[in-house]
Specification:
Elements: E1 5-6, H1 10-15, H2 21-25, E2 30-31, E3 55-56, E4 65-67, E5 70-85, E6 88-95, E7 104-107, E8 111-118, E9 126-129, E10 153-159, E11 164-170, H3 174-179, E12 184-189, E13 204-213, E14 232-235, E15 246-249, E16 253-260, E17 266-270, E18 276-280, E19 283-284, E20 295-298, E21 303-309, E22 314-320, H4 343-352, H5 366-369, E23 383-386, E24 389-393, E25 397-403, E26 448-449, E27 457-458
The structure holds copper (II) ion.
Length: 467
């Protein structure tokens, strides 16, 4: 990871009055973000209690220091630039140079001291979602603490009382600050993994947040008033093909922790395997309460820990099942043109506008292949190249890559799956088939004729027409 450190400048120190002089002189460094890719080597605990680290998809873990029995971390709320995928960079707000902010990893029983420096143009506060803590440390601006003014540093101190999957986000001007990308993950590892009810040790432990932005093509700053109609559906402020794949060794036990800080629910769907929901932000679930799933709906403000055994080698799609959430920025005013034969009108328009193109009369798959000119700083609606052609995806989509023989801690992309001979869907070239069709059941139903090469036409009910 990038080892650059952000040192607090003299001006910031002089104006930070909320922390005592002694504490200020010894503020821990605020680490800044590495590139927006998954850390190939997770940050191993170097001090404090031992644990097995999580891997934050397209993210990183905040370094800490131990000081007189406290685990000290330093978050800096500040404007950041975040590449959502190659070709588009957004102007967001985040922590320590990235949106989402870095993942915080602690161990149950740790006494945690968090310095929060506000470098935003407005006040903020940080809420530690899901934690048991003193009310005054809960981070609700105006309710449990005064807001942190710009330029000031506040300190939060509490014990990480229960293991699990948590988040942090502002509880100050929330609509704006969360729409701008301010959020992060908090993982509390169990102190005694084998004696923690519902918890099981896994070989790979991934985590990421669901978030969303509304950024007009050609611009870079999210529209913060948008309530539902977002156009960039992200995992950790990345969209496909900018989301890294999840490399998994064949046979590994895998946990994927997902938190939702968008304005709608996301049914997260995994191909090729069944999983159980082994944890929520309320804790580890009782194993007797679990049932197998291939899709888990994750509501707003919820976290889910999905666990499965990676027994099937291959490239397995892993995505939100709302089909509009596996797309990038698009014009929502595009009418449905399937079945509309507009060849005649196109010829007329092309006499006036020679480059005029029409799309969508056979579906919209053309979009995945066509290289249409786009404004600067936006992404195609459907994009990404796979080993078999255009993937026609965007947004909340990536691939779980289950492979034999990966190294235990190796999170490098193993490339595309080499399918065993004879195990890929193939074209039929034998004699033509005569498929069975449902009988036409009544005279009221319209009959649909398919003319090869032409749009479908609905014709009048049986008996009422002549060919
Ligand atoms: Cu979704």
């Amino acid at each position: 990871m990038n080892s650059r450190r952000l040192f607090l400048g003299g001006a910031a120190l002089a104006s930070a009055a909320a922390v005592s002089r002694g504490a200020l002189a010894a503020l821990p460094d605020a680490a800044t973000a590495p590139p927006p890719t998954t850390m190939a080597l997770p940050l191993q605990p170097h001090s404090g209690r031992p644990y097995r680290p999580v891997v934050t998809l397209n993210g990183w873990t905040l370094p800490w220091r131990m000081r007189a029995g406290w685990k000290e971390l330093h978050l800096v709320a500040e404007p950041v630039l975040r590449e959502l995928a190659p070709g588009m960079t957004a102007q967001l707000w985040g922590y320590n140079g990235s949106s989402p902010g870095p993942t915080i990893e602690v161990v149950e029983g740790d006494r945690v001291r968090l310095f929060v420096t506000n470098k935003l143009p407005e006040h903020t506060a940080v809420h530690w979602h899901g934690q048991r803590l003193p009310s005054g440390m809960d981070g609700v601006g105006g309710l449990t603490q005064p807001q942190i003014p710009p330029g000031k540093t506040f300190v939060y101190e509490f014990e990480a009382r229960r293991s699990g999957t948590f988040m942090y986000h502002p509880h100050a001007d929330e609509m704006v600050q969360m729409a701008m990308g301010m959020m992060g993950l908090w993982i509390t590892h169990p102190r005694e993994p084998k004696r923690t009810p519902g918890y099981s040790e896994v070989d790979r432990d991934f985590c990421f947040l669901l978030n969303a932005f509304d950024i007009e093509p050609g611009s870079a700053t999210p529209k913060i008033m948008t309530m539902l109609d977002f156009n960039l559906w992200c995992w950790n402020s990345r969209v496909f093909p900018g989301i890294d794949s999840l490399p998994v060794r064949l046979g590994d036990r895998v946990r994927i922790r997902v938190g939702n800080l968008t304005m709608t629910n996301h049914p997260i769907h995994m191909h090729g395997h069944e999983f159980v929901v082994a944890g929520t932000d309320g804790g580890w679930t009782n194993p007797a309460s679990r049932w197998p799933e291939v899709t888990a709906d994750i509501a707003v403000g919820q976290m889910r820990a999905l666990e499965f055994s990676a027994t099937e080698p291959g490239d397995w799609a892993f995505h939100c099942h709302k089909s509009h959430h596996t797309m990038n920025a698009m014009g929502h005013d595009v009418p449905t043109m399937i079945g509309v034969d507009h060849r005649e009108v196109v010829q007329k328009i092309q006499k006036l506008v020679p480059d005029y193109m029409v799309m969508g009369e056979r579906g919209m798959a053309d979009m995945g292949e066509m290289e249409m000119p786009l404004p600067d700083n936006t992404l195609p609606m459907m994009t990404g190249q796979g080993p078999m052609g255009a993937l026609e995806m965007g947004g909340m989509f990536t691939v779980i890559k289950v492979r034999e023989g990966l190294g235990a801690g190796d999170y490098r992309d193993p490339g595309w799956y080499a399918h065993p001979k004879g195990s890929v869907a193939y074209e039929w070239t034998g004699e033509s088939m005569n498929p069975q069709r449902a009988p036409t059941s009544n005279t009221a139903g319209a009959e649909v004729h398919h003319h090869p090469g032409a749009p479908w036409r609905a014709v009048k009910p049986r008996g009422g027409h002549k060919h």
